[in-house]
Design a protein that fits this description.
Layout lengths: L4 H8 L4 H12 L4 H10 L4 H10 L18 E7 L13 H10 L4 E3 L5 E3 L2 E6 L5 E6 L13 H12 L8 H4 L8 E5 L2 E5 L39 E7 L3 E6 L12 E7 L2 H9 L5 E2 L8 H4 L4 E6 L4 E6 L9 H10 L2 H8 L4 E3 L23 H10 L6 E8 L4 H12 L4 E8 L1 H5 L8 H4 L2 E6 L6 H5 L16 H12 L3 H18 L2 E7 L1 E6 L2 E2 L2 E2 L5 E2 L4 E2 L1
Length: 554
């Protein structure tokens, strides 16, 4: 297709300098069509407008996101991991818990499987010139299950709760250093301004389904969520029984298209294999998520469908940078050089992952600098580093981790690999609740361990990964990594509104982390959701959320 310069000129007239710079990148070929759509949605450009720009730029018509349709009225049955704590939108931190929240609650915007932001409770958003203030326009006429209309006061109260340190909010990992309580301003009943601590080029993702705590609740919410499960979503709570399961029914007063299923049922399991057996035995229609290793019996079985989504989800191997032999960056690099990432991807993950390069910049991110060389296994170099660090005689250390997905097997592989450089690794594998503890320093096996492997759910942008586990004041800094140069680079990346500026900062971060290696990012794994044949319209996200409003059975 040829470029339509006249249409492009018309579109440019009402665009900001930042938006026009992104359009220039698309037209000049510096920004791919895919990255243009992703970054344009972040800046608040609507999908129809983005499609019009790509068409005018001669790059073809943007395809719409078509969702499967089927007969209404089914009950969709789901197997899932038992939530490890009470269902509380402010504090919940585990996959089972946030899956429950998402069944009834909604976010200001949705991060889809393609990392493109789509409107949800907000109909639009935009930054000011510096990215320090983001303005969100809310949809009108949305009702909570409890009856009141969702308005700006509810949004202000909901996000204030999460940004308030006094509430021990799990979302402080997102908002610390970005957004403070009291910095959310109601402009009118349907307009909210977020006044940030500093420039932030990716902020809308912080209010999206990526931030799983950030469902919008009534201003009057006072706790004890399990008795209400209040929200704005297409399903309402029918019954919730802790440690057993939950069921939901169609919300007939939903603001959008009514859900196809009459009901959804969720059964809680303590292990993955029990979930898989329940699908194979016909007791459920969907397993919320399986690992490539644990789910291998389903992946090649034509009796089931596998929904596979590329993601930024990963297992972080942190190493304490403030004590013992791991205090020396050369030792940490040596451990990283022991990993055979090709075998991790092909063997452990059955090809359902991409190799990591010891930074949070996954291959899926538009801002990742792909020119940074990939770290490879090199035992000779690892031994040289151990000798230079005075650790060539080896040492003993304990690796503490969680019993979840393929993590125990990953730990065993690391244990075997590091033997080659004289490190004796003792494994301490704990149940998830015991591993995470209170998820604060001094009260968490995760955050207090010398070495540990922790599962990190997908995020549509790397901001949380860049900040929470790696900045000096990061709320999830299990490595106890404190590096002023890194902190400055992270701040620069987070502040950048322009995609090319983000990529430049990302490249510097990637190289610094290869040198320091406080955390090993061995691979980024696909989200795998198996369903029974004849089940259509199940919409997972890479975050392992599950949207069932368009689900049906044939």
């Amino acid at each position: 297709m040829k470029k339509n310069y006249r249409l492009l000129d018309l579109i440019r007239r009402n665009r900001t300098p930042l938006e026009n710079h992104l359009i220039d990148g698309l037209v000049d070929g510096r920004v791919s069509r895919r990255d243009f759509i992703r970054h344009g949605s972040l800046l608040g450009l609507s999908l129809p407008l983005l499609g019009g720009i790509t068409t005018a730029a001669g790059l073809g018509v943007m395809t719409s996101h078509v969702r499967a349709q089927g007969a209404p009225g089914a009950t969709i049955r789901v197997a899932m991991t038992v939530p490890t704590a009470a269902i509380d939108p402010v504090t919940i931190a585990d996959g089972g818990g946030f899956l429950m929240l998402q069944q009834v609650g909604e976010y200001l915007c949705l991060d889809g499987p393609d990392l493109v932001l789509r409107p949800m409770l907000a109909e639009s958003w935009k930054p000011n010139d510096t990215g320090t203030i983001w303005t969100f326009k809310l949809r009108k006429g949305i009702k909570f299950h409890s009856g009141g209309e969702m308005k700006a006061d509810d949004v202000v109260a909901s996000i204030d709760r999460l940004a308030d340190p006094a509430n021990s909010s799990n979302a402080l990992s997102v908002f610390t250093g970005i957004l403070q309580k009291g910095a959310i301003k109601k402009i009118d009943d349907y307009t909210v301004e977020f006044h940030l601590d500093g420039p932030n080029g990716n902020f809308p993702y912080m209010l999206s389904s990526d931030n799983y705590n950030a469902i919008i609740l009534p201003e009057s919410y006072s706790g004890d969520y399990e008795n209400s499960f209040d929200g704005t979503g297409p399903f309402r709570l029918e019954k919730y029984t802790a440690k057993i399961g939950a069921s939901f029914v169609r919300n007939e007063n939903y603001w959008g298209e009514k859900a196809l299923p009459n009901r959804t049922e969720f059964t809680f399991f303590t292990d993955e294999q029990s979930q898989i057996l329940s699908l194979q035995g016909g007791q459920v229609d969907v397993v919320n998520v399986v690992s490539a290793l644990g789910g291998i019996g389903l992946l090649n079985d034509p009796s089931f469908n596998i929904i596979s989504l590329k993601s930024s989800a990963h297992q972080q191997l942190h190493m304490r940078c403030d004590e013992g032999p791991l205090k020396d960056a050369r030792v940490r690099r040596a451990i990283a050089l022991c990993l055979d990432r090709d075998k991790l991807v092909a063997g452990l993950m059955k090809g359902r992952a991409l190799a990591g390069n010891d930074s949070p910049f996954a291959p899926a991110y538009p801002s990742t600098d792909a020119s940074v060389p990939q770290r490879k296994r090199d035992i000779a170099q690892a031994k040289q580093l151990m000798e230079a660090a005075g650790a060539d005689k080896g040492f003993k250390v304990t690796l503490t981790t969680e019993r979840y997905l393929e993590i125990p097997e990953y730990a065993q592989l690391i244990q075997n690999w590091v033997k080659e450089i004289g490190i004796e690794l003792e494994l301490n594998i704990l149940d998830q609740g015991v591993y995470y503890g209170d998820a604060v320093f001094g009260k968490s096996n995760w955050l207090d361990s010398v070495m540990g492997i922790t599962d990190y759910s997908h995020r549509g942008v790397p901001n949380v990964f860049v900040a929470a586990p790696l900045k000096s004041d990061g709320t999830w800094n299990a490595a106890h990594f404190k590096n002023k140069d890194y902190d400055q680079l992270a701040t620069s990346y987070i502040a950048a509104l322009d995609l090319e500026a983000q990529k430049a900062a990302a490249g510097k971060i990637q190289n610094l982390l290869l040198e320091e290696t406080p955390v090993i990012f061995g691979y980024f794994y696909d989200t795998l959701v198996p369903t029974a044949k004849g089940v259509m319209g199940v919409q997972p996200t890479p975050m392992a959320q599950l949207y069932l409003d368009k689900a049906s059975k044939s």
